[in-house]
Amino acid sequence: MAYSDWTLETIKKAFELEEVNTVGIFSDVEPVAPSAHLTTTLERNVPLAFAMGTEKAKSELIVSAVLVELWEHFNRSISFFSGIDFNVDAENGLTGVCDFLVSLSSSQFHLEAPAIILVEAKRDNLTAGLGQCVAEMIAAQYFNAERGNDIPCVYGALTSGIDWVFLKLDGKKLQLDMAAYTIERCDKILGILANMVAQKA
């Protein structure tokens, strides 16, 4: 079983998660102004990605640009990976490829704990990817614990490139933010992602 096989219903039952639905979990987070470079990049890339309409185009042209900006915001002291194999626990179905993964480690040539943010890019229907993203978040908890970085709280994001939805997994408590943020509010998206890193740094 792979991450993509999980639904929200099956992952909650299998790992005995408590689901909490809240509007605006991250609403109080301060925005982070995007650099002039990111602003220009998004002005150019968003219409192109939208026209192409594929998950790959949105990942490459929008999501990657936002995460590179996050990396620069923290002076390259964190790392992020794209399309990484994250095979943590085959017996429990925690295997597969993560679209994007952010670690607090500055090591960019290989993944080191703690993994703190998992980002899944979807073409359109974000809620359909909830189970997959949560499975990756649970895998990050396992991965961190196995390496002595037992951080119970990890974060997730589902994005079409245009719309972003955020999740928080603290132990077995799963918080789903019912508020979506659009790329037009890139400053808010960056603020939320930066806050996730800062909470753990």
Helix count, DSSP H or I runs of 4 or more residues:
5
CATH topology: tt1808, chain A
In the CATH hierarchy, what is the architecture at level 2? Answer: Alpha-Beta Complex
Number of domains: 1
Q: What is the number of strand segments? A: 8
**Overall mean pLDDT score?**
95
The gyration radius over C-alpha positions equals 16 Å
Helical content stands at 25-40%
Order of helices and strands: HEHHEEEHEEEEH
Which spans of ≥5 residues are poorly predicted at pLDDT below 50?
A: none
Question: How much beta, percentage-wise?
Answer: 15-25%
- Structural class call reads alpha+beta
Q: Give the CA-CA distance, first to last residue.
A: 33 Å
What would you note in describing this structure?
The chain is of the alpha+beta class and 201 residues long. The chain has a single domain, classed as tt1808, chain A, CATH 3.90.1570. The chain has helices at residues 8-15, 36-52, 55-73, 130-146, 186-200, and strands at 18-22, 79-85, 97-103, 115-121, 153-159, 163-170, 173-177, 181-182. Strands 1, 2, 3, 4, 5, 6, 7 and 8 form an 8-stranded mixed beta sheet that branches. A hairpin with a 2-residue loop joins strand 6 (163-170) and strand 7 (173-177). Helix 1 (8-15) runs parallel beside helix 4 (130-146), helix 2 (36-52) packs antiparallel against helix 3 (55-73) and helix 3 crosses helix 5. The chain is globular, with a radius of gyration of 16 Å. The N and C termini lie far apart (33 Å). The model has no long low-confidence stretch (mean pLDDT 95).
Q: Which properties best describe this structure?
A:
eight-stranded mixed sheet, alpha+beta, tt1808, chain A, 5 helices, 201 residues
